[in-house]
Amino acid sequence: MTYELAIGDRSYSSWSLRGWLLFEKFGIPVKVRKVELYSDDMQSLLADFAPARLVPAVRTPEGEVFGETIAIAETLAERHPEAGLWPENAAARAMARYMSSEMHSGFRDLRNNCAMDLLKSYEDSKPNAAVLSDLARIEEIWARARGRFGAGGSWLFGSYSIADAFYAPVAARIATYNLPVSATSKAYVDAHLNDPSFRRWRAMGKAENRVLSIYDQPYAQRPWPGPVPQVAIAADGPSLNSACPYSGKPVTHSLRLNGRVWGFCNAFCRDKTMHDPDVWPAFVAMVNGGKS
C-alpha cells in the first residue's frame, strides 16, 4: 500500500518538508514526485493531483487526493493508528494537536521574514520585534510540551510525533537565520538538525543543486550549524560495487569516500549520498560490508 506525494524544492519548501516527514518518520511507504517551485511544471504536476492547488499533495493507494499538511497528518493518523503519529496520552495528544494547528495557521511574521533556506546560515539576520514575538510564543509552547510530556526523549512529547514534523521547518529557520533562543530551545533545534531523516532531506536538496536567488539575504554567512558530513567527492570508476545500493541497478556514477570508490545508478543517487554519506542506511551497510 503505497501513497504518492507531490513536493516542491527540498531546500526551500517548508510545507513539503513537513508533509514528507509525516511519511518518512513513521515508516509509511510513499512514492515522491518532485517539481520545481515557480515553474510551469508545477501546474502540470498539480493537475495530476486535482483538486489540490499547492504542494504537498497526497494520493492514497485507493486514488483519493487531498492537500494541506494538517489534513495529511490527520488522515495518516486515522489510517495508520499503529504508527503512533500522535502521542498516546490523551492530554499530550490534545496539546500536540493544538500546537500543530497553531503552526499550520500562525507565526506569519517568522514565515514572512525568515523563509526556509536549507542551503545557507547567517551570522546575524537582525530579526525584528514581530519575529522575536513569534519566537517567544514558540519557545513558550515548546517549553510547555517538553516540561509536561518530553522527559522520555529529545522531542516535544518524548517520542517523535506529528507536532515535531510541523515544527521541523521552524527549527530550520532558527538554524538558518541564527535566531536567538534559549539553551533548551536550541537543544530541540539541534535534535532536528541531527535527525537522520532531516539530514537526508537536506542532502537531497543539495543534490538537486537548485539555487533560487529570491531567497538570498544581505547578511554575512556562517557554516551550517548541524553535523559536519564526511567529505565525499564525485569520482570516475571503476567502483567497488557493481549495483546501486538503493535501486540494485547497474552503476553509472561514482563517488570517492575515504579513498574508496562507490557506484550508483544515477547522478542524484550519488549526489545525495555525497552530501551526507552517514545518513543513508543502504550505503552505510554496503560500505561496512564491502562489495555489493
CATH architecture descriptor text of the largest domain: Up-down Bundle
Which radius of gyration do the C-alpha atoms yield? 20 Å
Domain tally: 3
CATH fold group of the largest domain: Glutathione S-transferase Yfyf (Class Pi), Chain A, domain 2
How many E-type strands? 7
The largest beta-sheet arranges its strands as 2-1-3-4
| Helix percentage | 40-55%
What would your notes on this structure say?
The structure is a single chain. The protein has 292 residues and is α+β, with helices and mostly antiparallel strands. It folds into three domains: 3-82, Glutaredoxin (3-Layer(aba) Sandwich), CATH 3.40.30.10; 90-199, Up-down Bundle (Glutathione S-transferase Yfyf (Class Pi), Chain A, domain 2); 232-289, no CATH class. It has eleven helices and seven strands. It has helices at 14-24, 40-47, 69-79, 90-105, 108-113, 129-149, 162-177, 183-194, 196-208, 267-274, 281-289, and strands at 3-7, 30-34, 57-59, 65-67, 232-235, 253-257, 260-264. A hairpin with a 2-residue loop joins strand 6 and strand 7 (260-264). The longest helix has 21 residues, at 129-149. It is globular and about 55 Å long.
